[in-house]
Every structure is written in structure tokens, then in C-alpha cells.
Amino acid sequence: MIVGEAPGFNEDRQGEPFVGAAGKLLDTLLARIGLSRSDVYITNVLKCRPPQNRDPMPNEAEACSPYLARQLTLVRPKVVLILGRHALERLMPGQGSISRIHGSMVKRGDIAYVPLFHPAAALHNGALVADLEHDFDRVKIYLDKLLAPPPPPEPSPVVRQESEQLRLL
Ligand code: URA
Description:
Blueprint: E1 2-4, H1 9-14, H2 21-32, E2 42-44, H3 58-75, E3 79-83, H4 84-91, H5 98-101, E4 106-108, E5 111-116, H6 119-124, H7 127-146, H8 157-168
Parallel strand pairs: 1-2, 1-3, 3-5
Antiparallel strand pairs: 4-5
The chain binds uracil.
């Protein structure tokens, strides 16, 4: 699951998250680790576009939080990618800045959270693209570990004894 900030102009018109320029960069980053949109559930902290694309206000994030909470309950993600400081503040309040913790994984209950720079920030500051690429490579490593099928159970001592006897025969 991926959580962004809020719908922008294009998202508002189309009713889909991340369909503009930031979404194109997000698609490229997903493709880098072998994923496409059909593999992920994408949503935002705010469900409506703030006027003039201004930052979400705390009371707006608060008003939308039951929807986000319900989405988390229904989707039951193993991993949540947190895009940008507003999603970070909502999902992991008091964790400090994205610049400090981006790319790290924090496990809370059944969910592993990975804070990342928002792709829109990388559209303004090209230096962040390399950080995002590096962090997505780390996301792939986390996913490979977290989604790996569990190892087969150890055979019980009796079964092991029998198979050892068979080997001796
Ligand atoms: N930025 C976001 O945070 N969300 C979108 O859906 C689009 C741009």
C-alpha cells in the first residue's frame, strides 16, 4: 500500500490518485523494482483536493483519518510506503523528518512502514530522484524478505527417524 498527501488537479478531475507528473515518477520507481499499479493499493491522507494545492491542514487530515483507517483495515497491507511529510505525520506522528528516516523500515504490529520522499519533491529537487531510487531498491529487499513464503515445517522426530531408517535399509 502507498499513502500520499492529497489529490492534485489531475487526480481531482479523474478521481484516481497519482495520475499527474508525480504519478509518472512513481510508476517508474515501481517498475524499477518489478511492480506495477495493479500490484499496489494507492491512496492519500486527504480525500479531497486542498484549494490551490496548499498543504493539508491538521483538521483536514483529522477529518479524513477514519477513511484512511478503514482503508488500512480492508486492504490489510504488509508494507505501507509513506510518501512525504504529511503522510508521515499522520501515520507515524513524532518520528522526525523524512530527510532523517527515509528508506528505513519501522515495524508496527503486522505492518512494516517505509517513509520515503514524496515524488513531487523530487520533481522540484532532482537530487532526490537518486535517493528515491536507492530507497525503492531497499523496498524491494524488504518486500522479498517480508513476502517470502515461510520455510516448510521441520519434520517431526518420528518422521525423521523413519526416513533415517529407510535410508539405512
Ligand atoms: N500527490 C499526492 O500526494 N497524491 C496524489 O494523488 C497526487 C499527487
